[in-house]
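Researcher: Hi, I'm a grad student and pretty new to this. My advisor asked me to get structures for two proteins we've been looking at. I'm not sure of the right format, so I'll just paste the first sequence and hope you can take it from there.
Model: That works fine. Here's the first sequence with its structure tokens right after it:
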Amino acid sequence: MKIRDIIIIGLHLVILVPSLLLSAVAFSDAYYRCPVSPCGDTSEAGMFGVLAAIVALLSMGSGALCLWQRHKVLYRERLFMRGITHTRRWARIMQNQDFYFIKTRSGLRSGTFGDPKGNEHIFEVATDDAALGVALRDSLSASRVVAQSLAPDGMTWPTFVEIAPEFKSSSRAAYYHDWVARIMAYGRYKTKRKMFAAMRMCSVELDMDKAEIEIAPKNHVKLEAWDLGKLTEADKVRISAQVSDAELGAAMRLALSRCT
């Protein structure tokens, strides 16, 4: 419970408790003035008791309404914060007939995108496992928890979330097109089909709480699109983050071999 919730409850108790006490005293006074019928003049005490009771009821109603509104705000905050953590980092591995491509991914919750400020690596397919493992760790180390803009009204991003306008959809598209152009020039590909036709892809997530790296193979749907297809949890490769670079590189190759 936050301090402001305690203050709200305290203020209503300050009004509620005296009102209830005054109401009880007034009604008691009215009762004892009238031990037998017919009653004496109890109108003043009775009226005072009624007013005190009304104040108490209004205070109770107001307090309940404030607590309900606060509950809705807290529930909205919990929904807003769900899935946001500073202990996860992301990368992507791609492989075609000529090269391995390893690059940083950043984002928020489960939505991640290529990071223009991340690290990229390109290796020929004959590269050894250790070099691949080192490159993957380097790409993961540059991964960030980012949001495209300020939080919605009434909400606040955690301090570890960076505001990164470069992750807006238009900027992401420009970064991707630039990456494709650079790779085509590097590999001397004359067409996208030559570059992407045999492209395998895996998403990588580092869970620092578990000290575990998960490499998830994808299904090649069309030239520049991948999904899960018929792949399942059993197809993912999970490995300790503490393994050697060579073991990590071998795990990458294993996951890529499961791509469809």
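Researcher: Oh nice, that was easy. Here's the second one.
Model: And its structure:
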Amino acid sequence: MPDRPVLAVGDAELGELRTRLAGTRWPAPWPVTGWAAGTDPGELRRLVAHWASGYDWRAHEAAINALPHHFADIAGTPVHYLRFDGEAPDALPIILTNGWPSSFLELIGLAQRLATPSEHGGSAADSFTVIVPSLPGFAFSPQRPSLTDPVQTHELWHLLMHEELGFSRYAAHDGDLGAGITSRLAEAHPDALAGIHLMAVASPVAYDEGSLTAPERPTSARWRPGRRRRARTSTSRAPGRSPWPTAWPTRPPGCSPGSSRSTARGATAAGTCPRGSATTSC
């Protein structure tokens, strides 16, 4: 745990922000109402007024500082992460990765429910030890100086889980940009991954065309150009910044729509998930 708060925004900075919000130059009214031509002007004014005078930054700052923060140097890259220890002694480790534009904060509610299910109507025996890292360039993990660093983010995550934290086997859950990272992680280290849960599916780095079935080959041919473009953009690197989220969603990992899912203990259970999710056992 750090010996000082990870966030300490000065009063002058907060005052300057409030001044800029209060001095917003509003556009002339558009000849339509509501959301017909973009953001509802009344709703936007309400939000700006809340940020300028109603939002209690200090309360949120204190809540963020109270989280279980840790920092590690992974292959020369500083990595920030949260650790929530599972309440069961044999809790399976799991790493959760946020998407873009977002931050580790969106995963706090989910992490707490996974680590301490008995506090949320579940059983302590089903707990996980949850690791929530910050992507490079997001929040407290600094942006990497080069886009050509040989250690990509999925390898940073494996080094964090395996070398830094000593987990020989673990699970992973992600969506959006994080789903691409987890997909690469599972491809690179299948023996270390107990299972992955994705809310988006990334294209594989490579695959054997000869393994496709006859019905699959025409579809693969049609999608091959787009797959290559997405593979280039769904990179394991994250050289950007992300605003704080406005909500902390708590979708449970480990399920797929209308099918069975692999659980942490190797059993299967019926489960449903939001549309677009997918579960894979490695």
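Researcher: Is there anything I should tell my advisor about the second?
Model: You could mention this: The longest strand covers residues 77-84.
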